[in-house]
Each structure stands twice: as C-alpha cells, then as structure tokens.
Amino acid sequence: MTIVKGVEARGTHHCETTALGVLLRHEGLDLSEPMLFGLGSGLSFVYWDGKGMAFPFLGGRVRPFELTRNLAARLGLTLTVEETTSARRAWENAAAPVDAGRPVGLQLDSYHLDYFRSKVHFGGHVVAMYGYDEHDVHLVDTGPQGGAVRTSRARLALARAERGPMTARNRSFTITAPAHPIPWQDRIIPAVRDCAEAFLSAPIANLGHRGIEKAGEKVPGWLLRAGDPRRDLPQAALLMEEGGTGGALFRVLYRDFLEECARLVGDGRLRTGHRLYAEAAVLWTEVSALIAEAGESGDAGCLERAGAVLRELAHVEKDAMQVLSRL
C-alpha cells in the first residue's frame, strides 16, 4: 500500500474546494473553504435548459476546474494538468504523484464511485487521491460523501474515462507553491472584483444576474416542463441546497468568504457585499423550499412565488456585485 502521510479530510461542502484544500495544505497553505472558493472567483449563475435535457439546471458557480485555474493564477501557484485517452497513462498520471509523496487532484464522473450516495451522472466532480493498493484507491471527498473514502481502482477508471457534459479526459492535476509565495491577503480585492465584473458583464442572458432574472421567468412553468414533477422539482431543490453547494446555491460560501474578507481588509464595500449576500442566501433557501413544495403538492402558486423571489434575487445580487466591482 502507498499512502501520502499527513493528509487530512475536513468537513467541507464543495468538491473542488475540498480537493484544493488537500493539495494546498500539503504545500503549507491552509485556507478556509470559503476563502478558497472566493479567491478562485467561484461564484456565478447559469440557467441551463439545453436541447435533450430532461429538466433545467440551476448552477451557482463557474464551470468545473475554472475555480482551480483562477486560484492558481491568482496565488502564483504552479498548476500541472495531465489529460489522456489512455487508461494506462491515466493511472500512471494519478499514481506518480502519490508515489512521490504528494496528493493529486482528479476530475471524474461521480456516478461510478463505489461510495457515492446519489447515482446521478456528474462529470465535473473533483476529488483528491492520496493512496492506493492493489485493489482500491484512497480519496478525500466532501464531508457529506464521507470525507476520507475508498473506491475500487476499476470504478475509479470508469469514473475518470466517462464522456459527457462537464467531463474531462482522465484529468489529473497537482499544485506546487512558489519558493516565495504571494501573500494571499493581497489577492482578496482582485478576486472579489474579478468575480463581480464577470457576473455583471455575462455575455448571454442565461448567466449572471440576467440569468437569475430569466430563472424567475421560467421557474413558474416548471410543473408543465417536468416529466415527473414529484421527482424532478424536489431533486432540483435538493441539488441547490445539498448538491455540494454549501447551501443556497453557493451563496452561503460566498457570504462567509465576504465576512472573512471584511474582517481582514476593513473596507465598507465588503461589509455591504456581505450584508447583501447574507440576504441572498436566505432568499435562495426560500426558493428551493418553494420548488420542493410545488413538486410535492402540485401547487403552481409555489412556483409563482419562487419566480417572484428569483426576480428579487436578481436585483439583490446585481446590487451586491455593483458595490463589489468598485473595490
């Protein structure tokens, strides 16, 4: 058995920040999960209802792996990424860092993992691998998925090779800190400002605050859009609150990031942004509860109220990001 020593599994919520935390702590940089999420400019919004989709998707963050690239660039970290279509090479890319005594990040489809509780295809899932033996691999996943977990090497290979939305070709990655690290506190304001500017200037109406407004228009029709409302609506609500989002579609994580930043930087605009995202987090939880109730009861009025709250949210988040963009 090969195991990287000193790896700690914490009670984290989001997969990509969980893996980043493992890799960065090994490099001597220990940051909270909200700080990792915020320094990676992770917050966003997308209303996605593509052709052939069984049901619309509400996303609250940037695309898979964009957070990792953002964070590495912002902190001056060396991000080494490997991708391949070869199963043999894929295993070598994952095992080699572990053999050298360092954890490695893997992007994969969580559907195939032995321990995963929800058997739904999601190709943007990220874990940290820190050990293996002849049959199994040792991974760190989110707290709700068990923290320090194991899956078979065969199932891991299937998960990494899966093709479909948000998947990557057996992607593995390592992070190396520079000899003279950039003080991460100095990167707070650029991270907040970049996130705000991207949110406000999203190129299509499905993204950012315009995407939230569009969701407000579309959600009232979800009882007719759903193939099975009693299944589809509660599942959508569950993903918003518990699908690795940290609650309220990532708004709790961003609220806590802004609170931490306000204590460190002391800028009134950060305090205003924190107050508005605290309000947004409560409203997002209200939206998810109304969507779940509509699915369980068949009451279209719940979706009308959810639509109204979403339209309010579009204004709250736009206001917050306008303030934060002026940092």
Model description:
This is BtrH N-terminal domain-containing protein. It comes from Planomonospora corallina. The protein has 327 residues and is α+β, with helices and mostly antiparallel strands. The protein is built from twelve helices and nine strands. The protein has helices at 15-26, 33-39, 66-75, 87-99, 153-161, 188-200, 208-218, 222-225, 229-242, 251-265, 268-297, 300-325, and strands at residues 2-3, 43-48, 57-61, 78-82, 104-108, 125-132, 136-140, 148-152, 172-176. Strands 1, 4, 5, 6, 7, 8 and 9 form a seven-stranded antiparallel beta sheet that branches. A two-stranded antiparallel sheet has the order 2-3. Strand 2 (43-48) and strand 3 form a beta hairpin. Helix 10 (251-265) packs antiparallel against helix 11. It is globular. The termini are far apart. The mean pLDDT is 97.
